[in-house]
Amino acid sequence: MHAKKIDKIATAVLYTIAGIIVAILASLLLYILVKGLPHVSWSFLTGRSSSYEAGGGIGIQLYNSLFLLVITLIISIPLSLGAGIYLSEYARKGRLTNFIRTCIEILSSLPSVVVGLFGYLIFVVQFQYGFSIISGALALTVFNLPQMTRNVEDGLRNVHHTQREAGLALGLSRWETVIHVVVPEALPSIVTGIVLASGRIFGEAAALIYTAGQSAPALDWSNWNPLSVTSPISIFRQAETLAVHIWKVNSEGTIPDATQVSQGSAAVLLIFILIFNLSARYIGRRLHAKLTSAN
C-alpha cells in the first residue's frame, strides 16, 4: 500500500507539472494571438511597411521570409542528406567519426547571434556578398545543418537492419540499397525533421540581422532578372524578414502604430510556425501510413 500511495503521489505531481507547462505555453500563445489578430488584415499582409507613418504592412517581409526559407532549404537539404547518409551507412567507428559528431554537437549548441556574427565576417565581409539573401541563407545553413543532419542520421538508423539485408540479398549494391530501400523507409522522419527545421528557419532573427540586412527595399515584380537588386528572385539583395521586422519595430519604434504592427507581425509569425509544426506531424503520419500499407 505504501508503494502504491507513493506511486499515485508521484504520478499526480508529474501530471501537475505537465499541466502547468501546457497552461503557460497555451496562455502565451493565446496572448499573442488575441493581441495580434485584430490588427491582421489583407492590406496588412500584402502592404508595404512604413518607416514614419502609421498603417504599414508586412507584405515584403513575409515574402522575404518565405523566399529565404526556400533558398536555405535548397542549400541545407542536400548537405544534410549527404552527411546523414555518410554517418549512418558508411562511417566506421573511430576517431574521425567521433570528431565529426563532436563538431556537429558543438555547432548545434552555438547561439544564433554567434552564427550571425560568423556569417557577417565570412559571407558579408570576406566573400563580399554584402547584406543579402545568400548571406543569410548560408548563415542559416550553418545554424540549422547540425540539427537536420542528426534528424537524417537518426531516421536512417531507425530503419531495421533486415531492410538492408533484404536489399543486398536481391543483388543491389550498398548505394542502391541505401537509395532505394533505406532512405524511402526513413522518409517520414526525414520529412518531419525538414518541416520542423523550416519553422526554426522562418522564425530566426538574430542570425539574419547581421547577414540578410535590416531593410526591405521595394520589389519590381515585372523584373525577373536574378542579378537585379530590385528583382523578387534576386539572392543578392537585402531582405528584412518578418522576425527581423518585429525586432526592428520594437527597438526603433519610429512609427506611431509600432505596437500594433509588432503585435500583428508576431501573430502572423506564430501562425506560420504552428503551421510548420502541425504539418510536420501530419505529413510524417501520412507518409508512415502509406509506407506501411505499401509494405
TrEMBL record:
It is a multi-pass membrane protein. One of its GO terms (cellular component) is plasma membrane. It is found in: Cell membrane. The chain crosses the membrane at residues 12-34, 66-87, 99-123, 266-284. Its main location: membrane. It holds the Pfam family BPD_transp_1. Keywords: Cell membrane, Membrane, Transmembrane, Transmembrane helix, Transport. Gene3D superfamilies: MetI-like. One of its GO terms (molecular function) is phosphate transmembrane transporter activity. Residues 62-280 form the ABC transmembrane type-1 domain. The keyword Cell membrane applies. GO terms for biological process: phosphate ion transmembrane transport. PANTHER family: ABC TRANSPORTER PERMEASE PROTEIN YQGI-RELATED (PTHR43470:SF4), PHOSPHATE TRANSPORT SYSTEM PERMEASE PROTEIN PSTA-RELATED (PTHR43470). NCBIfam families: 3a0107s02c. Belongs to the binding-protein-dependent transport system permease family. CysTW subfamily. This is Phosphate transport system permease protein PstA. It comes from Streptococcus alactolyticus.
